[in-house]
């Protein structure tokens, strides 16, 4: 129980087998990623798999780090030398909770998924990335976003080039995923980011994920947010992170913001990034 072959609907998504059925899925996912940097595999988990991961998330929900602060899309400090309308000076209320990766030991169902070679190989094939490695961050390689009523995540970019999420449990209301595809694929593109923040951009798309759906998202390049939640039921979303260089971890600043603590490895490898984006 709780192994990849019981968690994943392998009949619908034969990620473990080469052949025509897998190739058809790859073609669709690649087309979606190429068009807007986002692809969704509906019902990727079995109903039993959804319940197993929900129970696991529930069992460690009290380990979540809950934070309430104001952030800009880059998680950087205010820079008074910039104009007031600059995106780097636009701060929004952020209230969210993350269950760090060290709460999911090797034998746990969620980590079994993350370490399943067939799944990581399938995701790499979807992304068509030559350089593809598990995230080396012991707090952030496989985590669960646990959000309660009123929580939301304002406009931001991800630390990693690509992120895989699995919807586990939805709130009663709210929690829609909104994103501006590939807004900084060629550079920071502050002008278009400003339009998104102002609500005047025509690039924003809205996506509602259901429990069991798997999403592959290039969040390093697409500005995105999660709408505030309503109701007593918490929203659980698993986040599986992969990177383009071996040994990468989060910055100390980002880890403190998201998990409330750092480990020695975060300070030892601070500044080890594959690009020069602000965050």
Automatic annotation (TrEMBL):
Domain Fe2OG dioxygenase: 122-245
Assigned keywords, A-Z: Iron, Metal-binding, Oxidoreductase
Domain of life: Bacteria
Record's keyword annotation contains Iron: yes
Record GO terms (molecular function): metal ion binding; oxidoreductase activity
Stated family: Belongs to the iron/ascorbate-dependent oxidoreductase family.
Protein name: 2OG-Fe(II) oxygenase
């Amino acid at each position: 129980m709780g192994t990849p072959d019981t968690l994943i609907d392998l009949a619908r998504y034969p990620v473990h087998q080469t052949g025509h059925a897998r190739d058809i899925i790859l073609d669709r996912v690649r087309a979606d990623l190429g068009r807007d940097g986002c692809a969704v595999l509906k019902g990727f988990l079995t109903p039993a798999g959804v319940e197993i991961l929900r129970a696991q998330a529930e069992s460690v929900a009290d380990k979540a780090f809950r934070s309430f602060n104001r952030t800009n899309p880059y998680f950087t400090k205010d820079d008074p030398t910039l104009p007031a309308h600059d995106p780097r000076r636009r701060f929004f209320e952020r209230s969210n909770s993350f269950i760090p990766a060290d709460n999911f030991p090797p034998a746990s169902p969620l980590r079994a998924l993350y370490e399943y070679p067939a799944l990581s190989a399938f995701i790499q094939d979807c992304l068509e990335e030559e350089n593809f490695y598990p995230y080396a961050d012991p707090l952030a390689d496989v985590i669960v976003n646990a959000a309660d009523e009123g929580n939301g995540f304002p406009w931001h970019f991800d630390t990693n080039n690509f992120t895989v999420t699995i919807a586990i449990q939805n709130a009663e209301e709210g929690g829609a995923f909104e994103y501006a595809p590939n807004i900084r694929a060629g550079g920071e593109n502050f002008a278009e980011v400003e339009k998104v923040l102002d609500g005047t951009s025509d690039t924003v798309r809205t996506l509602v994920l259901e429990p069991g759906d798997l999403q592959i998202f290039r969040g390093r390049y697409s500005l995105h947010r999660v709408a505030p939640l309503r109701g007593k039921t918490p929203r659980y979303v698993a986040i599986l992170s992969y990177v383009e260089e071996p040994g990468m971890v989060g910055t100390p600043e980002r880890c403190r913001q998201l998990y409330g603590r750092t480990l020695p490895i975060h300070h030892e490898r601070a500044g080890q990034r594959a690009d020069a984006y602000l965050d």
